[in-house]
Structure to design on (1200 residues):
C-alpha cells in the first residue's frame, strides 16, 4: 500500500497574485536566510572582473562574444562548420554560450560580464537551499546556505567562466526537484527536475557521471521496494564479484579506455548499494509516487518531458539555426570522451588529487561527510542494533525527539490531487516526540541508550509519513552522491581543480545536515525539557565547546614548540615551552571527561564536534578570502591552474594605448577610435598548439583587426625581414613595414630569433603567460611537490615503464632497475608526510599563509613582448604609483652604453677610480667602462669554467679594486682582479634539466645549515672594508657571509615573512656605519641589519620598511645602493622609478618615469654610488646606464 497521502478534501485554489500579503510568514529564519542570500550576492559580484581571464575562460568568453556579434565560421562537432554558434564537445554544451551572450547583450562585453552567468548560478544555488527546510530543519538549512555561499571552491568557481558553476545549480535543482516531488507530488517540483536535467544536458558532458550515480541509486531503490531484500542482495553481490574481477584483470574497452577504473567505480556504487539495503526502510515511495504519476497525473509527466525536450532542442539547435546540433548533442559528447578526452588526462594529476584538495579547501565537507557515512551506513545499521540489547527498551522524550530527522517539527503533506493540475498541499505540523518513543514509567535511561533505541525504532518503522521517510532517505542519498562523485572524478582521466566543486556540493550539503542534527540534538537536551541531571549542570555543560577550543589551541602550541628545531639550550627551551601547554591540554581533557559524565557521552561528543566545526569554519573563511579575493590569480593556491598572469591585462593595455597613438588619425567605420588596425604578430605555438599565446590574447585583442598568427618555426628561423607585414592587408604583395608589436613564447626563441628581433625591436616585457601550482615530478620521488607520490613502492615496474613517452620510463635499464634506482616511497607516506616532524611546520605555514614549502617555485609559460624601436616610450607595466606624487624629471648628466653595446644589463658597481662595471646577463659577461663612458674591457664568457659566467647579476668592488660577480646560474661568486683576470670562485650546485647549476635547500635554517655554500641563483653581493663578502642566496632565502677567498663565516635567514626571514632577497648595500640593507623583494620590503658587539651582522633587523611597487612573483630584479652616510637608493622596476630614502624608510625623492629620453627609464635595475655622491642606474628596458646628480633634499631623520 502506498505511503503517500491521497486527497482528503477539496481545497480552493487561489492565484498567487490574488493572495494577501501575510507578515506572519516573515520570521527570524527567513530574515537570516535573506541576509545570507544578500551576502552571497556581494561575495559573488564584488571585484568579479579584477582577475585576468583564465585560458579556458577566455575561449568561452571569446566564443560567446562571436556568437553575440554574429561572427560566422564556427567549428562544430566532427569538424563541420556553421554560420553561427554550434555544439562542439571539446568546448562543452551550449547553455554557457547562450547565457553569456545575454549577459553581453544586457551589460556590455568584458571580463565581469563573461563570469556573470556563473555568479548568478552561485547566488541561485544559495537561494534554492530554502527548499531544504523540511529535511534539514532551521539550523541545517541556514548552515547549508552559508556553506554553499562561502565554501572556498564553490565560491571561486561560481565566479569563473566555466561550465562547472552552471552545472552546480542544475544538479542541485535536479536533486531538489526529485525529493520535493516525491514528498509532495506537486508538479512544480517535477518541472524543476525536468528543467535542471535539460540544462545539465545542455551544459557539460559530466552529466553522464551524474546520470550514472543518480540512476544507480534510483534503480537500487526501486528494486528494493519491489523485490525481497535477500534475493536483491544476492544479485548485487554477484554483480559486485564480477566488477571486482574486472578491476583485477583490467581489460581494454577501447584503445584509450580500460575496464579497471570504470569497474572500480561500479564496485563502489554496488558496495554502497549493499549497505543501503541494510540501512534504509523499504516502504514504497519511488514506486508509489511513479505509479500515481502514471495513473492519475500523466499530463504532468508529458509536460515535464516536453519541457526537457524543448530546452534541449532550442539550445542544441542554436535557436533552430543549426538543426544538426540536435543530433550531435545526443552522442558526440560521449564519443569524444571515450575516444580521446579520458586518455588525454589533462594536467596528468595523480589519483589522490582530490584527497589533497579537499582538506585544503573543503575540510568541513570532507570530515563531516565521512563521519556521516560511517554513522549512517555502519553505526546505525550494524553497531547500534547490537547495543540495544544492553539497555532497557525505553527512552526519554527529549532524547527521542532529538533523534528524529527534524529536531523540532515534522511536516506531513496532504495532497489535494486533480488530474493534470498542480496539487495544492496542506502542511501539517506534528511533534516528533509524540511520533517516536514513549516515556519510561519506571525511570529514565542514560540518553545515549535512549538514542540507540530511537535509531532502531526509526529504522523499523513501516508507517513513516512522506517527509519523515525522505528525511530518512535523503542523507543516505547524499552519502551515495558524495562517495560516488569522489570515486568517479578520481577515476576520470582529466582531474582539474574546477571538478572539485562536484564533490564539494554533496559534501557541504551532508555537512549541513550533520551540523543541523547536532545543533537540534544539543538544543533539545539542553532546553527546558532537559533531564534533571543535565539541567542542574547546564552552565557547566555549556563550557564543553569553549574547553574543546582551548584544548585544541594548547595542543597546537605544544606540537609547534616540541617540533621546533633547536640545539642545546634552545632545544631545552622548546621542550619546556611544549610541555607546559601539553599539560594544560591534558587538564582540559580531564575536565571535559568529567563533564561528560554529567552530560552523557553523546551530548559531549556533539558539543565537541560543533566546537571543532567552528574552528574549521574559521579556517575555511580564511581560505575563501585568500583564494577568492587575496590572490585568486597566483598559483600558490592548488586551486589555481594554468591561470593567466596578472601581467596579461597590463600588457594588453600597453599595446592598445600604443595602437591608438599610432593609428588615431586613420579612423574608419570598422575602426571608430583608430586603434584597431595596428598589426600584431603573435606566436600561436607549434603544430599541436604547444606554447601558443592564443589564449587569453585572442579574447583581449578581440577588437584588433590584424592579429598576424605565426607558428613556432617562423620564430625559430626568423630574420629581421621576417617581421615585416603588408601596410595594406588587402594587398599582401604590396609595400610592407615592420609590425609594431611582436608577442613570442620564450621556448621558441633561438639565437637567430633574438638577433632578428634586436635589430629593430626593444624587449618591452618579459613575463609569464600563465602559471600553475608547482606539483613536482611524478617520475622522481625525491623531487619536491605532491607528484612525488604518484607512484609508490607497490606500483609494478611495468606500470611505471608505460610512462616512457612522458619522460618517466627507463632508457638503458630494465623497469625493475629503474624502479629500484628511484626509491619510490611506501604508499602510506602520502598521508603521513605532512605530519612528519620535519614537514609539520611547512604544512602549518602553507595551510595558514599559503607559503610554498621550499624549494618549490612557481612555474609557468614564459613570453616576451617586443616593440618596434621607434615606438618605445608609451605607457609601461605598472608605471603609475597610486597615492604618490609624480616622479621628478631629473636629466642624466651622462649615459653609458651605445645602442647595441648592452643587451640585458642588471648589476652595477663603481670602483674608486670611477670605472663602471655592468653585468650584461643575457650575454654572460661584465663590461667595464671608463669614467668617460669608453668601453675598457669585456670580462667573462658563457660557460661554467674558471672565469666563465652564466647570467651574472650582482657586482661589487673591494678596496683593492677586485671585482666580485654573483654568477647566478653557476651557483657561485667569481672574483677577478682589477685587470679582469680570474682569481677564484666559491659556491656549488648541480645541473638541472636546463643545464643551470644550483643547490636547492628547503629554505629552513636546518636545510641552509646543511649546505652553507650551496647556492640557488645568487643575485646580490657586497664587500665591506674588513673583507667580509655578503651574498644574497636568492633561491635559498638567506644571506651568506664569507671572506674574500670564499671561506664560509656565517649565515642567517630562512624562507618566510617574519623579521630576519626572506622571500627572494636580491639587492644588498652597505653604509659607512656597517649597516647591511637587504632587498627582501617578494616580501615587498627592505630589512636593515646592524653590526653586533663582535662586528658580525645581527640576524634581527633594526629597521624594516615596505617598498611600494615591489611585488611577489615578479621577475624584474631591483637593486640597492647606499652612501657612507646612510642614504639609500632603491630601484622600482614596475614603476620605472628610483627612490632616494634614509635608513628608516622616509622617501626623500623619486625620479624617473617611463620613456627613452635621458630623464626617463624603463624597468630600472642595478644601482651604484661613487665617491662623489653621483648615482648610477641601469636602465634595463633601454639597455643603458645613466649617471645622475641629485639635488639637495631635506632629510627629516637628520633634521635638515
Amino acid at each position: 500500500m502506498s505511503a503517500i497521502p491521497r486527497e482528503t478534501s477539496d481545497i480552493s485554489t487561489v492565484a498567487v497574485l490574488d493572495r494577501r500579503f501575510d507578515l506572519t510568514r516573515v520570521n527570524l529564519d527567513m530574515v537570516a536566510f535573506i541576509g545570507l542570500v544578500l551576502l552571497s550576492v556581494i561575495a559573488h559580484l564584488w571585484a568579479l572582473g579584477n582577475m585576468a581571464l583564465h585560458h579556458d575562460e577566455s575561449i568561452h568568453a571569446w566564443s560567446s562574444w562571436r556568437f553575440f556579434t554574429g561572427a560566422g565560421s564556427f567549428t562544430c562537432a566532427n569538424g563541420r562548420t556553421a554560420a553561427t554558434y554550434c555544439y562542439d564537445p571539446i568546448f562543452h554544451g551550449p547553455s554557457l554560450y547562450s547565457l553569456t551572450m545575454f549577459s553581453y547583450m544586457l551589460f556590455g562585453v568584458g571580463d565581469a560580464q563573461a563570469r556573470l552567468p556563473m555568479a548568478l548560478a552561485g547566488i541561485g544555488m544559495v537561494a534554492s537551499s530554502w527548499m531544504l527546510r523540511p529535511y534539514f530543519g532551521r539550523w541545517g538549512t541556514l548552515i547549508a546556505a552559508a556553506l554553499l555561499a562561502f565554501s572556498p571552491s564553490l565560491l571561486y568557481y561560481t565566479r569563473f567562466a566555466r561550465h562547472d558553476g552552471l552545472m552546480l545549480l542544475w544538479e542541485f535543482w535536479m536533486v531538489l526537484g526529485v525529493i520535493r516531488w516525491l514528498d509532495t507530488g506537486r508538479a512544480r517540483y517535477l518541472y524543476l527536475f525536468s528543467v535542471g536535467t535539460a540544462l545539465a544536458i545542455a551544459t557539460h558532458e559530466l552529466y553522464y557521471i551524474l546520470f550514472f550515480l543518480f540512476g544507480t541509486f534510483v534503480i537500487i531503490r526501486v528494486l528494493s521496494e519491489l523485490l525481497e531484500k535477500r534475493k536483491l542482495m544476492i544479485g548485487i553481490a554477484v554483480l559486485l564479484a564480477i566488477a571486482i574481477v574486472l578491476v583485477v584483470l583490467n581489460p581494454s574497452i577501447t584503445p584509450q579506455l580500460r575496464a579497471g577504473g570504470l569497474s572500480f567505480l561500479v564496485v563502489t556504487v554496488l558496495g554502497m548499494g549493499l549497505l543501503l539495503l541494510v540501512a534504509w526502510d523499504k516502504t514504497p515511495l519511488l514506486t508509489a509516487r511513479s505509479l500515481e504519476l502514471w495513473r492519475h497525473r500523466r499530463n504532468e509527466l508529458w509536460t515535464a518531458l516536453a519541457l526537457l525536450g524543448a530546452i534541449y532542442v532550442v539550445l542544441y539547435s542554436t535557436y533552430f539555426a543549426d538543426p544538426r546540433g540536435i543530433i550531435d548533442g545526443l552522442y558526440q559528447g560521449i564519443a569524444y570522451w571515450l575516444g580521446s578526452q579520458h586518455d588525454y588526462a589533462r594536467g596528468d594529476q595523480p589519483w589522490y588529487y582530490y584527497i589533497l584538495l579537499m582538506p585544503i579547501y573543503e575540510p568541513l565537507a570532507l570530515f563531516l561527510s565521512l563521519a556521516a557515512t560511517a554513522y549512517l551506513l555502519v553505526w546505525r545499521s550494524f553497531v547500534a542494533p547490537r547495543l540495544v540489547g544492553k539497555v532497557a527498551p525505553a527512552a526519554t522524550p527529549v532524547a527521542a525527539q532529538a533523534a528524529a530527522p527534524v529536531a523540532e517539527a515534522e511536516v506531513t503533506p496532504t495532497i489535494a490531487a486533480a488530474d493534470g493540475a498542480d496539487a495544492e498541499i496542506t502542511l501539517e505540523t506534528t511533534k516528533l516526540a509524540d511520533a517516536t518513543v514513549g516515556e519510561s514509567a519506571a525511570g529514565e535511561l542514560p540518553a545515549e541508550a535512549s538514542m540507540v533505541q530511537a535509531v532502531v525504532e526509526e529504522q523499523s518503522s513501516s508507517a513513516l509519513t512522506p517527509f519523515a521517510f525522505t528525511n530518512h532517505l535523503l542523507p543516505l542519498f547524499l552519502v551515495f552522491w558524495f562517495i560516488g562523485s569522489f570515486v568517479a572524478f578520481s577515476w576520470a582521466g582529466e582531474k582539474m581543480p574546477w571538478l572539485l566543486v562536484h564533490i564539494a556540493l554533496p559534501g557541504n550539503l551532508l555537512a549541513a545536515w550533520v551540523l543541523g542534527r547536532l545543533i537540534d540534538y544539543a538544543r533539545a537536551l539542553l532546553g527546558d525539557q532537559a533531564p534533571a541531571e543535565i539541567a542542574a549542570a547546564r552552565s557547566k555543560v555549556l563550557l564543553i565547546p569553549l574547553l574543546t577550543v582551548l584544548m585544541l589551541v594548547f595542543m597546537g602550541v605544544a606540537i609547534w614548540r616540541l617540533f621546533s628545531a633547536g640545539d642545546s639550550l634552545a632545544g631545552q627551551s622548546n621542550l619546556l615551552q611544549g610541555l607546559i601547554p601539553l599539560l594544560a591540554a591534558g587538564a582540559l581533557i580531564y575536565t571535559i571527561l568529567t563533564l561528560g559524565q554529567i552530560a552523557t557521552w553523546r551530548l559531549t561528543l556533539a558539543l565537541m564536534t560543533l566546537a571543532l566545526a567552528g574552528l574549521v569554519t574559521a579556517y575555511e573563511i580564511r581560505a575563501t578570502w585568500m583564494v577568492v579575493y587575496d590572490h585568486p590569480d597566483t598559483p600558490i593556491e592548488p586551486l589555481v591552474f594554468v591561470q593567466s598572469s596578472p601581467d596579461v591585462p597590463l600588457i594588453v593595455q600597453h599595446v592598445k594605448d600604443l595602437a591608438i597613438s599610432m593609428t588615431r588619425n586613420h579612423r574608419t567605420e570598422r575602426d571608430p577610435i583608430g586603434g584597431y588596425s595596428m598589426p600584431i604578430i603573435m606566436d600561436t605555438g607549434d603544430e599541436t598548439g604547444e606554447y601558443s599565446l592564443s589564449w587569453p590574447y585572442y579574447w583581449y585583442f578581440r577588437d584588433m583587426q590584424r592579429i598576424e598568427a605565426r607558428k613556432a618555426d617562423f620564430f625559430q628561423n626568423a630574420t629581421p625581414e621576417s617581421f615585416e607585414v603588408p601596410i595594406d592587408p588587402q594587398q599582401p604583395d604590396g609595400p610592407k613595414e615592420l609590425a609594431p608589436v611582436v608577442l613570442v613564447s620564450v621556448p621558441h626563441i633561438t639565437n637567430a630569433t633574438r638577433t632578428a628581433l634586436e635589430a629593430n625591436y626593444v624587449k618591452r616585457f618579459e613575463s609569464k603567460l600563465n602559471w600553475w601550482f608547482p606539483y613536482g615530478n611524478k617520475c622522481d620521488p625525491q623531487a619536491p611537490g605532491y607528484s612525488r607520490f604518484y607512484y609508490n613502492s607497490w606500483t609494478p615496474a611495468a606500470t611505471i615503464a608505460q610512462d616512457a613517452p612522458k619522460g618517466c620510463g627507463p632508457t638503458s635499464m630494465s623497469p625493475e632497475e629503474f624502479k629500484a634506482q628511484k626509491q619510490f616511497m611506501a604508499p602510506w607516506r602520502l598521508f603521513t608526510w605532512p605530519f612528519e616532524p620535519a614537514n609539520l611546520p611547512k604544512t602549518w605555514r602553507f595551510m595558514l599563509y599559503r607559503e610554498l614549502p621550499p624549494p618549490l617555485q612557481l612555474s609557468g609559460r614564459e613570453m616576451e613582448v617586443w616593440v618596434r624601436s621607434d615606438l618605445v616610450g608609451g605607457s609601461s607595466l605598472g608605471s603609475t604609483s597610486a597615492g604618490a606624487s609624480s616622479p621628478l624629471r631629473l636629466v642624466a648628466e651622462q649615459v653609458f652604453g651605445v645602442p647595441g653595446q648592452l643587451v640585458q644589463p642588471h648589476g652595477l658597481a663603481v670602483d674608486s677610480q670611477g670605472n663602471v662595471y655592468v653585468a650584461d646577463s643575457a650575454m654572460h659577461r661584465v663590461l667595464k667602462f671608463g669614467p668617460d663612458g669608453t668601453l675598457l674591457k669585456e670580462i667573462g664568457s658563457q660557460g661554467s669554467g674558471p672565469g666563465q659566467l652564466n647570467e651574472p647579476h650582482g657586482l661589487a668592488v673591494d678596496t683593492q679594486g677586485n671585482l666580485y660577480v654573483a654568477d647566478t646560474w653557476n651557483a657561485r661568486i667569481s672574483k677577478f682582479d682589477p685587470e679582469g683576470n680570474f682569481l677564484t670562485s666559491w659556491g656549488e650546485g648541480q645541473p638541472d634539466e636546463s643545464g643551470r647549476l644550483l643547490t636547492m635547500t628547503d629554505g629552513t635554517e636546518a636545510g641552509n645549515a646543511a649546505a652553507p655554500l650551496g647556492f640557488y641563483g645568487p643575485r646580490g653581493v657586497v664587500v665591506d672594508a674588513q673583507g667580509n663578502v655578503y651574498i644574497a642566496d636568492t633561491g635559498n632565502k638567506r644571506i651568506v657571509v664569507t671572506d674574500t677567498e670564499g671561506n664560509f663565516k656565517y649565515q642567517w635567514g630562512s624562507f618566510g615573512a617574519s623579521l630576519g626571514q626572506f622571500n627572494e632577497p636580491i639587492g644588498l648595500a652597505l653604509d659607512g656605519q656597517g649597516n647591511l640593507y637587504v632587498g627582501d623583494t617578494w616580501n615587498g620590503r627592505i630589512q636593515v641589519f646592524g653590526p653586533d658587539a663582535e662586528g658580525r651582522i645581527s640576524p634581527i633587523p633594526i629597521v624594516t620598511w615596505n617598498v611600494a611597487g615591489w611585488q611577489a612573483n615578479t621577475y624584474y630584479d631591483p637593486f640597492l645602493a647606499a652612501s657612507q652616510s646612510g642614504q639609500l637608493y632603491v630601484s622600482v622596476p614596475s614603476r620605472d622609478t628610483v627612490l632616494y630614502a634614509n635608513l628608516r624608510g622616509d622617501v626623500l625623492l623619486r625620479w624617473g618615469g617611463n620613456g627613452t629620453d635621458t630623464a626617463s627609464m624603463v624597468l630600472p635595475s642595478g644601482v651604484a654610488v661613487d665617491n662623489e655622491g653621483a648615482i648610477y642606474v641601469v636602465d634595463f628596458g633601454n639597455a643603458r646606464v645613466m649617471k645622475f646628480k641629485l639635488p639637495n633634499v631635506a632629510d627629516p631623520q637628520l633634521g635638515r
